[in-house]
Amino acid sequence: MGVIMQAFYWDCPRIEEKEYQWWNHIKGQVTDLKAAGFTALWLPPACKAANIAGISMGYDPYDFYDLGDINQRGSKKTWFGSKDELLSLILAAHNSSMDVYADIVINHNSGGDAEELNSIDQVRRWTKFTPRSGKFARDYTCFHPSPYETWDQETFGDMPDLCHRNPYVYTQVIEYARWLLEEIGFDGFRYDCVKGYGGWMVRAIQELRALRNGKPIRPFGVGECWDSDRKIDGWLDETNAWSDNRAGAFDFPLRERLKDLCDDYGYSLRNLADGGTLMKDRPTEAVTFVENHDVVRDNPIINDKMLAYAFILTHEGYPCVFWQDYYALNLGLAGEKSGIAALVRAHEDHAGGVTTLLHVDDNLYIMQRSGAGNQKGLIFVMNNWGEAWNGAWVETQLNNTRFVPVAWRGREDAGTPREQTTQGNGWGGFYAPPRGYAVYLPR
């Protein structure tokens, strides 16, 4: 299915000294990311934010149609750059056969130009929006409580909460999504804060029949439903009911287990085989990840993070890699066998087909992907022991086949896994370094 690069993290323009130049910075990495095997970029919110407490990451949207080309809210460019620079980045990605996903924030707004008295509850709020783009002006009827709906599911802090039941708001949101697809060139959406509004709004966007250069676009979609597996299941069921272009969701339950794997020494690998994650229960709708811009600020993985990346980049689901891990923390390691780049290449070339668990106990996990199409499958070994190599003889699906290690890493052990050849009955021995992993490919 590919591999997504989340091409930002919180305050990245300031931390990497690329303020107002982030789009150009990403563009400079497109060729290398494509060569590594990445197939899509997830960009931060591109529209002009309220910037009330200073320049922001865009999760406080003010003018949806100002992509850094109108002087308002303290600057002309967004923190990431200008509209022309964004368009140039998207074109560069498309020229490298990579998709680009927009982070779309449609639950709430910020930075209203005037207070208004809401006639329903007689409370004054900053709900008068007169953006200089001249598009999608808003007043109190566009927000909760509205004449069309008193409240929806959740609010986001004290920011005015959009009422999608208002026909004007609904129409404007749909047209905004269409504009992003047709004129700006995005290929899909990451839906922010989806617990704050009805899944029917996401379904309506997913079912858009947009056209770009005369060709239809079926947008990719993934929702940020930051909750339990049961709540995510409910959101997916609601959102995708009768839809012919289903949205996925980020696999937060799996991420919790991966954090425990990495940070809790002695964590049983049996937990990775259990249900209760999207990867296990709904793999076609699972976007798997290790870190993102939110969780890393409050609950980061501290130890042995590569175990988590090895897991998501060999298993089912649509994996997403975090820019800060790949670049700032230098876990990408292009050209080496011990980094994310080697796992991305193994994923793209071989991680196809169904997953079969060949062995699992508290400290050893061995899995095989069967392969599909041009992907020939792989064998993945994870070793939770901290002091020694670990492995087992297992019955694989391939007889008399040579398996070559292509990606591996161990804690304080630079040893190389040996090639393995299965017997005529498919049995073979596969091993991984201490507190590490190994990926074997059939040759």
Care to describe what's here?
With 443 residues, the chain is of the alpha/beta class. Among the domains are: 191 residues, Alpha-Beta Barrel (TIM Barrel), CATH 3.20.20.80; 88 residues, Immunoglobulin-like (Sandwich). It is built from 13 helices and 22 strands. The strands form six sheets. The protein has an eight-stranded parallel barrel. Strands 15-16-17-22-19-20 form a six-stranded antiparallel β-sheet. α6 crosses α7 and α8 runs antiparallel to α11. It is elongated and about 75 Å long. It starts with a strand and ends with a strand. The relative contact order is 0.09.
Class by SSE composition: alpha/beta
Poorly predicted ranges: none
- Cα-atom Rg, whole angstroms? 23 Å
Number of helical elements = 13
* Assigned CATH class of the domain at 4-107 and 164-250: Alpha Beta
Mean pLDDT: 97
N-to-C span: 22 Å
Secondary-structure blueprint:
Blueprint: E1 4-6, H1 12-15, H2 22-27, H3 30-36, E2 40-42, E3 48-49, E4 61-63, H4 83-95, E5 99-104, E6 114-117, E7 124-128, H5 167-184, E8 188-191, H6 199-206, E9 210-212, E10 215-217, E11 220-223, H7 229-240, E12 248-250, H8 252-263, H9 278-281, E13 286-289, H10 295-298, H11 305-312, E14 318-322, H12 323-328, H13 340-350, E15 355-360, E16 364-369, E17 378-383, E18 390-395, E19 402-409, E20 420-421, E21 427-432, E22 436-442
Parallel strand pairs: 1-2, 1-14, 2-5, 5-8, 8-11, 11-12, 12-13, 13-14
Antiparallel strand pairs: 3-4, 6-7, 9-10, 15-16, 16-17, 17-22, 18-21, 19-20, 19-22
Helix pairs in contact: 6-7, 8-11
